[in-house]
Amino acid sequence: MFTQQNPPKYSKQAEKFLKKQSQKTALRIINAINKLPEGDVKKLRGFKNLYRLKVGDYRVKFTYDKDDNRIAVEEVDTRGGIYKMGVIL
After folding, report:
1. Does residue 53 contact residue 34 with C-beta atoms inside 8 Å?
2. What is the mean pLDDT of each run of 10 residues along the chain (89 residues)?
3. What span, in angstroms and rounded, lies between the C-alpha atoms of 62 and 73?
């Protein structure tokens, strides 16, 4: 699928969400992001370069730039909240 060599880039929404979480939860999500492409990852239908990572009750939407070998975390939210907002990239 993809390999990650550069550190992930986080959107403002993702950073804000992670800061609101307990340290334990935030570290669990960040560790799962750092281990990509391992984990429960699926490509989102209807989008060229958008993926979803499941981390317990949380979801991480991210893109992958093949040229830079970099993951860009677009959004982090709860299972119910991530799909309500729609995708704005």
Report:
1. no
2. 78 96 97 92 90 95 88 93 60
3. 4
pLDDT score for 88 = 43
Q: What are the residue ranges spanned by the domains of the chain?
A: 9-78
- Do the Cβ atoms of 7 and 69 come closer than 8 Å? no
pTM (global) more than 0.90: no
Q: What is the Cα–Cα distance from 72 to 79, expressed in whole angstroms? A: 19
Task: Copy the structure tokens of residue 84.
Answer: 């309500």
Residue-level pLDDT at 4: 63
Which residues, 6+ apart, have CB-to-CB distance to 32 below 8 Å? Answer: 39, 53, 55, 60
Please tell me the CATH superfamily of domain 9-78, with its number.
Answer: RelE-like (3.30.2310.20)
Cβ neighbours of residue 13 under 8 Å, at least 6 residues apart?
Answer: 74, 75, 76
